[in-house]
Structures are given as C-alpha cells and as structure tokens.
C-alpha cells in the first residue's frame, strides 16, 4: 500500500490536463503529483457481530452505521487524514476457527470463503484486528479450541508481514454466560502475551464501567454509545502502530 499515489494529487493532475494545460505544464503537474505521493495504511477488522456493529432495539437487531470500526476510522482519519482506512469484515454468528478455516463467512467478496492464510495473503492490509469470543461461548467451544484458533490467526498474520492486534470481547450481561466468556477472554490475553502482540482488553475496560449493562442493547451487542467507547480503546492501541507505519518505522 505504501507508495500509492495520493488520490487528491491524481485529481489535481487530471484537472490540470482537462483544463488544457500545455505539455510542459502537464509534465510539471505530473512531477508535483509524484512528489505528493503519501503512504497509506489499510486496516482489516475481523470479528463477530460486535465487530460488524449490530445493535438491537425493540426486539429487532441490525447492523448500525455507528459501530466501533466506523468510529475508529473516523478517529484515525481525524489525526492522519484519508491516508488511513479501516475495512469492516465482521460477520455475525462466527467464531475464530471459522475465520481460520474459511468457513461460516456469509459475506460477499472474492476472498470471503478462503482459509485464513490465503485470504490474508490476498489483502494489502498492514494491520489486522481480531475480535472473537462470544460465539465460542454460544457454540460450546472449549477455551483450548479458542486458544488454538487465535494462535494460528496471529502466527499466520505475522508470517505474512501483517501486524495483528487482538481484542477481547465485550462482556455479556448474563452472569452465567459472562463467566464462560471470561475463560475465552483469558485465552485471548494468553495468546497476546505469548505472541507479543498488542491487545485491546475491552472485556476489562467495559466491566470496570459503572452500570455498563445499561450500555448493552441486548445480551451481547452494545448500543452505539458503547461502540464509541470501544473505538476509543481501539484507537489508543492502533494509532501508535499507524503513526509508525506512516513514519516508516514499523
């Protein structure tokens, strides 16, 4: 992605040509456009419905434009401009092992059904966010299965030159389910520590908020306000990585 012509520069060049600029002027404009090349950082966000951005109201659940991934992109672009883009690959009802194996992904796209290594190799993203755990609880996965899947996701990303960032799930209001989710969260923390990758511990952060359950739209999905708070936590971890990529030091 580095070295891609900055769109504004390309647009400026096209405008100059269209306005009848003579050959010498066009050459100068081309040189200016070349000098205006900016590095670009692309971030892929993978996860379940809480990555996709589902919220529920009056028994109806649907993806919302106000989700954590969108809020994160807004914050990053506020600091670094359009050079940074975050793509939301969240899919409701999915687990980490399905991302690893290329199964269970119902979203359209040429790489959606590919195993993780092939899919990620085809992506120009430099940073990869990974957020799972809730559906592992709902589908009776074991913490050990979750640990193995996340370890593979991280190791594969690293082997392909990507910077993986792990994120723990937001907590669940049901105490019984939340206790089981805590075991999954422990596995995410373990993988992050063992693999030395950045971690956004949403579970710990949200659990510390007073009356956090009132910020949930149902038993698993945040309201838009909580998605914004989640994005603020993401930003604290991701923005330094973006800055280092733009500076050429990562």
UniProtKB/TrEMBL annotation:
CDD domains: SGNH_hydrolase (cd00229). Residues 45-228 form the SGNH hydrolase-type esterase domain. The keyword Cell membrane does not apply. One of its GO terms (molecular function) is hydrolase activity, acting on ester bonds. Keywords: Hydrolase, Signal. The keyword Hydrolase applies. It comes from the Bacteria. It holds the Pfam family Lipase_GDSL_2. Residues 1-23 form the signal peptide. This is SGNH/GDSL hydrolase family protein.
């Amino acid at each position: 992605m580095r070295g891609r012509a900055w769109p504004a520069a390309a647009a400026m060049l096209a405008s100059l040509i269209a306005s009848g600029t003579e050959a010498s002027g066009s050459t100068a404009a081309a040189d200016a456009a070349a000098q205006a090349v900016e590095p670009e950082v692309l971030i892929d966000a993978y996860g379940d419905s809480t990555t996709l951005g589902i919220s529920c109201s009056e028994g109806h659940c649907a993806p919302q434009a106000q989700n954590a991934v969108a809020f994160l992109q807004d914050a990053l672009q506020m600091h670094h401009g359009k050079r940074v883009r975050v793509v939301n690959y969240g899919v409701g009802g999915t687990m980490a092992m399905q991302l690893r194996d290329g199964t269970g992904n119902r979203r359209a796209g040429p790489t959606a059904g590919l195993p993780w290594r092939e899919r990620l190799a085809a992506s120009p993203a430099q940073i990869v966010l990974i957020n799972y755990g809730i559906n592992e609880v709902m589908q009776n996965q074991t913490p050990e299965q979750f640990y193995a899947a996340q370890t593979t996701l991280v190791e594969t990303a690293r082997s392909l030159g990507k910077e993986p960032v792990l994120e723990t799930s937001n907590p669940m209001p049901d105490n019984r389910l939340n206790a089981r989710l805590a075991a999954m969260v422990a596995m995410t923390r373990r993988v992050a520590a063992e693999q030395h990758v950045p971690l956004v511990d949403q579970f710990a952060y949200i659990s510390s908020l007073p009356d956090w359950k009132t910020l949930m739209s149902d038993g698993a999905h945040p309201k838009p306000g909580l998605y914004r708070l989640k994005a603020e936590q993401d930003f604290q971890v991701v923005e330094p990585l973006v800055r280092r990529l733009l500076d050429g030091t990562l």
